[in-house]
Design goal:
The structure holds two protein chains of two kinds. Helices cover 27% and strands 19% of the residues of chain A. Chain A is α/β, with parallel strands linked by helices. In chain A, strand 4, helix 2 and strand 5 form a beta-alpha-beta unit. The N terminus of chain A is likely disordered. The radius of gyration of chain B is 16 Å and the shape is globular. Chain B has a seven-stranded mixed sheet with strand order 4-3-2-1-5-6-7. Classes of the chains: A alpha/beta, B alpha/beta. At the A-B interface, helix 2, helix 3 and helix 5 of A face helix 5 of B.
Chain lengths: 487, 215
């Protein structure tokens, strides 16, 4: 069987030229199907994604295109989709049905929490009723909206909470009623978003019918320059392959730059897989992964890895040392430009938050740049820690290399708006009174994940997606700004 | 006999008449009736994302509650920029659309996994979308909910049709006919997704096939 893959050769500036080199590699002739031997199962070279799905279905091996029933290890839902999901579950499985496993459902209110919108508040109440009725073990409830810290169970942004609470484990299958569920692929698991109906089905059966995706491989090699963050890498990739470049495909990230990243930076990369249309993203688990997971859960897990002979549908390679800080200009995550070439764009505000760019690492990065610059921001700079834990880190962790100061101290000295209650907040607009919602047509540099028209509220708002460094630099300049100006 | 007549038990309301007919928005085509939809089309372009289909501020509406389901429909495609789309999909003050056919370019439905997106379109009265390509979660949600048929075509229909033109989407013969010009365009087969949407969604289909016991 001839394998065909298209190699894209990166040139020195890091921009990948469009010259496609067709590589015809001849593989061994296909092994005819045979029943598993008594001493073991059929060995077929598979990618990590394929292996995880094979392990979770009744197949010894799977290949891209196969429609399979997969077992589900965890199902996550939040306040926007949870009520609808449970509504469908009750309608389809009946009022006396029980969820398939009350310890495998994680309910995380996070989207519209700190608002006076009655329906939004009602939706959290509905989740509480569901959690009680179905004896759901993990429900991160909030009742006192005036003071998030008075709610010991409340976490915040679902994808970050899933990781921090030890729900993300290598080799597992996770579905969530949110497109950024792919975030968890950083742990070497299959994780993707589904709608209410699919989630309702999983609630009742613990399984889902899905198609095995082919895998695109992205090799990120070299040493990360000090001005570059994971966000720059994923913007580079999305800008290269477009918002539909990975549709129905898995995206596997490998290379020395990836291996050198901590879990939060890896999550940033996998988080935006959906922005390229990707089904799921994966990063091979290693000691960094195991240390993070073991610090949060003692549950068993089994990491899997792509076979050396596995087939990848496309291969891309970059030397990260040659890349530059980027933005995704309005109005698409693939509208890639260097921060440098947008230096004439005057901005009105900066937003640092969300599952993509509101983790502890993101705030530490922004704080480092503010500290080095020793200047005041020129535009309102909104900070929304993703979870209670991130908020606590912002207020207690000394930022490396900043004379023992915490991020909160540095943000205050730089004139940023006081860090807000953890939630999704303005990343997706939300109810009108949402913190930092863009209610006027302004220009915003944001560490979030999407910049389609109206994403943060106003339809004519202009959103430049960027890394925490670039966001911080832009806040200081009052224009879209390459962080090297302050380093 | 045409699909719209079967579903509502009445003729689709003419644009000048305020809609007072309760349209059961899930497709639920009757057995034996052809999968053919005729009506006005609404043309959109590439990368129509879920925030444009149903802006996030309306996501507090829970689709499984009937009155909120209807309300979602009134906001369908309200996120489209006004300068590019001067004609609204659902007129101000109305709850239902005049355009049962939506035309798209590439990557229709990209962005969020929110099922509110195909639900809002279906609740508004959309019956079929014909686009070059779809984002995967949106495509999957159309089928699971049975809210509208996500047809694919290799023709760039968004360059050929204009909003308001009367078209027929014939999923038996896999053609779209533009009645304003007489032109016909090939569609890809809807395949296995067709019967699922005919039945009204994945659960209804599974029950009708005996895959799961009736609730």
């Amino acid at each position: 069987m001839a394998l065909q893959s298209t190699m894209r050769a990166p040139c020195a500036s890091g921009r990948v030229t469009r010259r496609a080199v067709k590589v015809n590699a001849v593989a061994a002739s296909p092994t005819p199907a045979r029943t598993p031997a008594s001493t073991g199962s059929v060995k077929r070279a598979m990618t990590m994604t394929e292996k995880i799905l094979a392990n979770h279905s009744d197949n010894a091996a799977v290949k891209p295109g196969d429609n399979i029933w997969t077992r589900v290890d965890k199902l996550m839902t939040h306040d926007v989709c949870g009520p609808g999901t449970f509504g469908i579950f009750q309608k389809e499985f009946g009022p006396n049905a029980q969820v398939w496993d009350n310890e495998r459902v994680v309910i995380i209110p996070d989207h519209y929490i700190f608002t006076s919108d009655a329906r939004a508040n009602r939706n959290v109440d509905i989740l509480r009723d569901m959690a009680s009725k179905y004896n759901i073990k993990y429900f991160y409830d909030i009742m006192d909206r005036s003071n998030f810290r008075a709610n010991p169970d409340y976490k915040g942004v679902c994808h970050v909470a899933l990781a921090q609470e030890g729900h993300c484990k290598p080799g597992e299958v996770l579905f969530g009623t949110d497109s950024h569920t792919c975030n968890a692929g950083a742990f070497g698991q299959f994780a993707t978003g589904v709608g209410n109906t699919d989630a309702g089905f999983i609630l009742g059966t613990g399984k889902l019918l899905i198609k095995v995706p082919p895998t695109m491989r992205f090799v990120m090699d070299g040493e990360m320059p000090e001005y570059l963050l994971a966000k720059d890498l994923i913007l580079q990739i999305i800008g290269e392959i477009s918002v539909a470049g990975a549709t129905y495909k898995a995206m596997e990230f490998v290379g020395s730059a990836i291996e050198g990243m901590n879990m939060e930076e890896r999550m940033t990369i996998c988080n935006m897989v959906v922005e390229a249309g990707g089904k799921n993203g994966v990063i091979a688990p290693d000691q960094t992964t195991f240390d993070y997971v073991r610090a949060r859960t003692q549950e068993a897990f089994e990491p899997v890895y792509s076979d050396g002979a596995a087939s990848f549908i496309e291969d891309y390679k970059w030397d990260v040392s040659k890349l530059e800080p980027l933005v995704a200009a309005p109005h698409s995550p693939d509208n890639r430009k260097t921060a440098r070439e947008c230096s004439d764009v005057k901005i009105d505000r900066v937003y640092i938050g969300s599952c993509t760019g509101g983790k502890t690492e993101d705030f530490l990065s922004a704080a480092k740049l503010f500290y080095r610059a020793k200047r005041q921001v020129k535009v309102p700079t909104y900070l929304v820690p993703a979870t209670q834990k991130v908020w606590a880190d912002v207020y207690t962790l000394p930022v490396p290399g900043c004379d023992g100061k915490t991020a909160a101290e540095i943000f205050e000295e730089s004139g940023c708006v006081t860090p807000a209650a953890p939630s999704c907040a303005a990343c997706l607009g939300g109810p009108r009174d949402t913190f930092a919602r863009m209610n006027e047509p302004e220009v915003c540099v944001s560490t979030t994940n999407r910049n389609f028209p109206g994403r943060m509220g106003h339809k004519e708002g202009q959103i430049y997606l960027a890394s925490p460094y670039t966001a911080a630099a832009s806040a200081l300049k009052g224009f879209v700004c390459d962080p090297r100006e302050y380093m | 006999m045409q699909l719209k007549a079967i579903r509502t038990g009445a003729i689709l309301p003419r644009p000048s008449r305020r809609s007072c007919i309760r349209v059961c928005a899930k497709v639920s085509k009757k057995d034996g009736e052809p999968r053919v939809i005729r009506g006005k089309c609404f043309v959109t372009r590439d990368n129509i994302d879920t925030d444009q289909i149903i802006p996030a501020e309306y996501l507090t509406l829970v689709p499984s509650k009937p009155d909120e389901y209807e309300k979602l429909g009134s906001y369908a495609l309200i996120g489209l920029p006004d300068n590019l789309y001067p004609t609204r999909y659902v007129r101000d003050g109305e709850v239902k659309t005049e355009y049962p056919v939506i035309i798209g370019g590439q990557n229709f439905g990209c962005g969020s996994s929110r099922e509110h997106a195909p639900v809002a379109l279906g609740a508004a009265g959309a019956q079929v979308c014909v686009a070059e390509s779809y984002a995967r979660i949106f495509f999957r949600n159309c089928i699971a909910t049975g809210e509208l048929y996500p047809c694919e075509t290799s023709v760039r229909l968004c360059d050929k049709l204009t909003t308001g033109s009367e078209v027929t989407v014939d999923m038996e013969n896999n053609v779209l006919i533009d009645h304003s010009t007489g032109a016909t365009y090939r569609l890809q087969e809807i395949g296995e997704a067709g019967p699922v949407i005919d039945a009204g969604g994945i659960f209804e289909y599974a029950r009708s096939q005996g895959m799961i016991k009736t609730a």
